[in-house]
## 1
Amino acid sequence: MKEAALFAIGDELLAGIGREGNCSWLAGKLSDIGWQVATIQVLPDEIDFIVSSVGAWLGKVDLIVLSGGLGPTHDDVTREAVSRLLGRPLVLREDLYASILARYAGPIKEAVERSKHKQALIPEGAEGIYNPLGSALAFKVNLMDTEIFVLPGVPREFKAIAEERVLPALDKGGKVREVIRVVGWPESVLKDKLKGLLEEFKEVKLSILPSPNLIKLSLWGTPGDVYNAANYVRNLLSEDILPQGASSLAEAVLLEAEKKQAPVALAESCTGGLLGASLTQIPGASKVFLGGVVCYSNESKIRILKVPEKVIRDHGAVSPECAEAMALGAKELLGSDFALSVTGIAGPDGGTEEKPVGTVCFAISSPKGLETFQRQFFGDRSNIRDWAVAFGLEKLWRAIKGGCEGGAR
C-alpha cells in the first residue's frame, strides 16, 4: 500500500489562530484512492524544525505534501527549509511566474510583481507548479524515492493545485473506497447488524463513522470486493441508506422533494433556524424549499403560526400537540405540501421532571395527514440542537419518500 506523510506549516495553526484543514481534506482524498496516510503533523515556521521533521520521513513514505509557508512575508520559510533539505540553492523562476503575473492588472499586478523575488523562488532542479488562484509558485521534487509536493496554505489554492496536479499523478494502488450513509441507526446496534458483512467479506476493511443520526460506512478494498460488499449493505439496509448524490440528510430531503415535486416548509422553535440553514446551504434549495418560520416565544407561535392558546395552556409549548399546530400553521402560511415543525427544551435551563432538558417534539404535516414524534436527546445545548435537526430531517425525508419508518427504533 502506498503511504503519505502530510505537513501543515504555520505558527498560527499551533497558536490556535487558524485551523488546519488542508491536510485533513487531502487525507480523505488519498484514502479514497487507496493510499494510507502515515502521519499528519503541524509544524512551526522554523527552518530547522521543518527540515528535521520532514527529513525523518524521506525514503519511508512514497509521498510528502507540505502546506503553507510560501507567502511573501518574513515568516514564510517553507521554500528555504526544503532548499536546505535538498542541499540545493533557490533559483528565481521568472519564466514560470510570468503566467501568474499575466492574471493581474494595475496596482495589484505591481504588488504581485514586487513579491516575485520571494514567491517565484523554488529549489534548483524542482518542477515549478502554476498556481491558478494565488501568487506563490508551488513545486515538486523527488528525493530518496519520495515524491515531495510543496503547496500554498491558502485553502482554495491548496485544493485547486492538489486536484489538478497532485491527485491525478498518483498511483491508485488497485484499491478503492466507497462510502454508504445510513440514517436512523445507533452505532452499537448497526455494528451488530453488520456482523454478517464482516464474516462474508473478510478482505474488505470496514470503518463505522458516527455523527448525529447519520453513520458513514466506509468500505475499502479491491474493486470487486467493495462492489459486492456495498450491494450486501444496500440490500440489508435498503430503506435507511441515503440516495446517490446525497452526502447529508439535508441533501436527501431536497433530492426527494424535487423528485416528487413536493414543496417543503419549516416551523422552528428550539433549533432557531438551524433546520432552514441546513437546507439553504445547498445550492438549488429554492426549487422545493419555500421557507421557514422561527417562532421562539409562545406569543409568536400563537400570532404567526396560529397555534391555539388553549394548546399551549393545556399542553405546553413543548408538546406533540403544539408541534402539530406549528406544522399545520407553517403549511398553511407558506403553501407547502410538507411541513416539519420542532419545539423542545435545549437547555441548560427550562427542564422539569415531566419534561427534562433534551425533550424535543416534532410534527410533519403531509398530504397523508399528521405525524408526531417525541424524543429525548442528551448532551449540551449544541448537541441537543444538532440531534434535533438530524432527527427532524430524517423524518421529513422518510415522509416525502412515502412514510417508510425504517431505522432501529
## 2
Amino acid sequence: MIRTLLGRAGLVAAAAAVATLISAAPAAAHGADAPNGTDYRTRTTGVAPARPGLEVRVIEAGARLELTNRTGRTIEVIGYSGEPYLRVGPDGVFENDRSPATYLNRTIDGDTALPAEADPAAAPSWRRIADGTTARWHDQRALWQESTPPPAVRAAPDREHRVRDWTIPLRDGTDPVMIGGTLDWVPPPDAYTWWAVTIVALLAVGALGLLAAAATAGRRALSALGALLIVGGAVAVVYPVGRELDAGARGVSAVVVGLLSGQVWSLLTGLGAIAAGWYALARRPSADFVVALAGACLALFAGAANATVFARSIAPVPWSPEIARVMVAAVLIAGAGATAAGVLRLHATARAAARSPRAADTDRRATAAG
C-alpha cells in the first residue's frame, strides 16, 4: 500500500514537472522572460524635461521598463536607430512593425532575427498591441547583455560598481524628452551560507518523522508538520503575487491572470500545501502520505524554482532581496522537511504493519506448542 502511494506521488510530481516545462515556453516567447534574480541593478533617475503625468519605472528585476502616459498626449519611444518604436497615448499602445527594436526587444537577450520589413529608415507601420496608456518592454540600453561581467567587476567582484549611465530618447509631439537611468553591479550574497542554513533547518524538521506516530509526541509532530505546511504554502502564494505586482500587474484581476498564465505551479502547490496542512492538523487517514506529497511539490515548484535568489543580489519582487531569500528558505524548509518527515513516518508505519502478522503468527505457534 505504501509503495503504491509513493509510486503515485512520483507520477504526480513527474507530470507536474512536464507541465511546468510546457507552460513555461510560451511565456518566454512573448517577452515575459523575467529573471529569477540578477546581479545588475537597473534604476531610473527620471524624465527630463519633466512631464506631469508621464511616469517610468523599472520592473521584473530590471528586465523591462514600464512607461505610463497620463498626459493626454501621445508619447513616442525612440528605437536604437533613431526611429519611432512605441507610441503610447489616449488611443492605446502601438508598436512600429518597421522598427528593429520591435523584434530585438521581444526577448531579454535581444536574439530575435530581424524580418525583411524591419527598416528604421522606412515610414512607421503602427500596430495596436494594448489598450490603456501603459507600455512595458525590454530595452538593451538599460541592460547588461554580455556573457561576462565588465572588466572593473572582474577585477573587484566584491565591490559595487557603476556599469554605466543610460538614456532612452522619447518624443512628445515635436519636443525631445529623455528617460535617464543607471546600471550598477551589486555583489551577490554568499549562497553557500543560505543553503547551509536551509539544509540544517529542513533536516531538523525532517527529524520529526523519527517520533513514533502512535505516541503523543508523534501526534504533536504531525500537527507541527501541518502548521509548517500552512505557513510554507502561504509564503509560496505570496511570493508569486509579489512577482506579478513587480511585473506591473494592477488590480486583483490582473494579478490573478498573471498568476494563472506564468506562476500557476507555485500558486497551486502553495494552495495544496495549505490544504495538506489542515488535513494533517485534523489527523485524517493517510495524513503522512499527503504531507509527504504536498511537501515535495512545495519544495520543488515553489522553493527550488525560486532558489536563484540565494545567489543573486536583485530579486524580482517589490520587497528587499533579503526578505525574498528568507521566504524562499522558509518554503524549502517547510516543503523538503515535511517530505522527509512524512516519508519516515510512512516507512515506520510500513515496518510496524509488516511486524504485526509475524508477531501474531509467533503467538499462534506458541499457543499451539503449549
## 3
Amino acid sequence: MPVITCIDDLKRLHKKRTPKMFYDYAESGSYTEQTFRENTSDFAQLRLRQKVAVDMSGRSTASTMIGEDVAMPVALAPVGLTGMQHADGEILAAKAAEKMGVPFTLSTMSICSIEDVAEHTTKPFWFQVYTLKDDDFMNRLFERARAAKCSAIVITVDLQIMGQRHKDLKNGLSAPPKLTPQSIANMMTKVQWGLGMLQTKRRFFGNIVGHAKGVSDPSSLSSWTAEAFDESLDWKRIAKFKEMWGGKVILKGVMDAEDARNALAVGADAIVVSNHGGRQLDGALSSIRALPSIVDAVGDKIEVHMDSGIRSGQDVLKALSLGAKGTYVGRAFVNGLGAMGEAGVTKSLEVIQKELITTMGLVGERTINDLGRHNLLIPKGFEGDWVD
C-alpha cells in the first residue's frame, strides 16, 4: 500500500486508476463550479484557536447521529454510481463504514441494490430517496428498505430539476452512460478497474432496473429518469413521504433558515445543510457558510447535519464547532474507493478520524460535545453581508 497521509493522496490515485468519465462525475460541479470550489475553500477562512496546558488524555470522537451511536459524527453520504468507481463499490463502502462504526447511506441511483448491500452487511444502514412522482414505486422502495432493515431514510429535496454538469455531458455520463470511442479507449487503460468490472454481475442501477415501471433493462432507463422527478414538489408532498416511510427521516439539501423551519414543521428527525456538493445551484453559498444561520434558527429543536466540502478531520471539527451534530463525506470516501477499493474507504475514514482527534487535542477539547464556536476564529462577515 502506498503511504497515504491525507485525502488528496487518495484523490491522486483515484484519478490514475478510474476511467475519466467516472472520476469527473465525482470531481465536478454544475455550470461554473463556483459553489463546488467554495465548498472547500471557505473552510480555510475559519481559523482554529490553539489551547495549551489542558488535560488532553482520554480523548474520544464517539458521538451519536439521530440517536445512533457512531465512532465519530461522520456518515458516508449517498453517492450515485458508486459501483462504477470500483466494482461492487457500494458493498465495499458499506462494509468499510460498518467496520469503522459510522453510518453508510445508499443512494437510490446506486449500482448495487438495497438487497445487495443488506446481504453483505450486518448492521442497519441509511437509504437515500429522491422525490419522485410514482407513489407505487416509492412505496415499493420503502418496503424494500424496511425489509433490508434500513434505520433511516434520507430524502434529497434539492433535485427536482437537474443542474447542468458540463463534464458529464462532454463525457457522455448519463443514465445509462453513453460510451464513445474516447471513453472506451480511456477505460482500456484502467486495467485493474476493468478486471473488477468484468468479474462482477453488478453493472447497472440495481434499485431501478427491474423495479421501476417500464424499466426492464438499462436501455429504457434514460426515459424513466427524464420523467420520474417531481417538479411540483412541496412540503405537503415531503410530509406524505415521511408518512409512507413511517420511520426516521433526514432531509438533505436544506440551505435556508426558512426551509429548515419547514423541515421542523413536517417532523423531520434531522436536516442536512447541503448544496449537493456544488452540483445543483451554482452560485449558492457554500454549506459551511450557510450552516451557522440554520443552526441559530432551529438547532435546538432538530438535529442539524452538514454535507459538501469536507475533506479532512479539521473540516469536520469546524462544522461541529459551528453547531452541526453530524457531517457527511462523499468525495472523500469515493476517492478512497476509486484508489484502493474497501481498503481505500477505510483509509479515508482513518485519515479523517486521526485528524479529528489530533485537532481536538490541539484546540483543548476531549469530547465531541465540548466543541463549540469558542474553538474557532470566525472572520467578520463570514456568512456574508448581503442587501435585503
## 4
Amino acid sequence: MKAAHSVSDLVGAGLLTPEAGAAVADVAGRYAVALTPYLLDQLAGATPGDPLYAQYVPSPEEAYTAPEERADPIGDVVRSPVKGIVHRYPDRVLLKPLHACAVYCRFCFRREMVGPGGEALSSEELDAALAYVREHPEVWEVVITGGDPFLLSPRRLTHIVQTLSAIPHVGVVRLHTRVPVADPARVTAELVAALKGADVATWVAVHVNHAVELTDDARAALGRLADAGIPLVGQTVLLKGVNDDAATLEALFRGLVRNRVKPYYLHHPDLAAGTSHFRPTLAEGQALVKALRGTVSGLCQPTYVLDIPGGHGKAPAAPAWVESDGTGGHTAEDFTGKRHEYRG
C-alpha cells in the first residue's frame, strides 16, 4: 500500500467518496495531506466519527477561518533570530531542520508552514542555526521539531545531536515526533542510536491524542526508544470530537504511562486557521482536568497549557485548586470537589 498525499488518494483508499473528495479539494489544496501506509491500514473502513479519521482526513469545516485565527498562532516568526531557530524562552530554543512530516494533522498549529517539499535547512543554514546555539551560553535545552525530525536520515540526526552534544552549555536535546504512532516501522535501531549524544540527555516527546493510536506496532516502537534509555514524554492536543471526555483521556494517559511515556502537556488547541471545529472552550478543558484529578495517579496527569498567541509562551490553564478566602487564609479543593480551609 502506498502513502496517501491527495484527495484522489483518499478516494482511492475508500476514506472519501468522490462527492466528499470534491467538497474538500480546496482545503487539501491549502493544507497538506499525508497518511502513511500504516495509518491507511489502521483506517480501513473508518468513518468521519472515528478518532483517527478526524485527525488526518480533511473536512469541509477547515475552509472556515474564524476571526481570531492566524497563520502563525504561537508567534514562531517573531521569535526567530536565525532561520531554523525559535528563541522564545531564555534557556531553550527550537531547532527546525525541516518542515515536512510523515503525516499532516488537521489541527496542526504550523499547518501554514509545513507540507510536501516543505522548506528544509540547507547545510549552510543548519550550520548557522547550530552556531546560534553555540554562541548563546544561556541555551541549555534544544528542542528539535519542525516538521518531524524522525524523518531525517540517521546520518543527519547523528550530525545534529553530536554537534549539540559537543556544545558545553547544552544539557538536553528534546525531539518532538508523531512517527512512533504514525509510522512505527521507521523507529529502527539505527534511528534510535542516532538520537543519543555523549554529553547531553536525549528526551523524545511523542505526540499522541487517543488510546487507539497505541497499537502493538506503536507500543513496540516506544519500547525500542525506552529500552535504549531515552526518556519519553507525551504531548496531547485536546480535540473536540476526538478526546474531549474524561474517560477517553484517562484511557490515553494510562496507556501512555504503561508504555513508559509520561504525559507532559495537554494542549488547548492553538488558533490555527481552519481549526475552530476542533476547539473546546477553556472552561470545558478545565472541567476535564478536574475530572481526572483523583481518577488517575500523578504519573498520568499532564499540565493543561495554553500557548499565548503572538509568541509569549505557554501558560498553565488548569483550574485553581487553592484559592484565597480574602482573610489571609485559603481554601483547597480535594479530588471529590469539596473545599477545605487552610491556614499556614
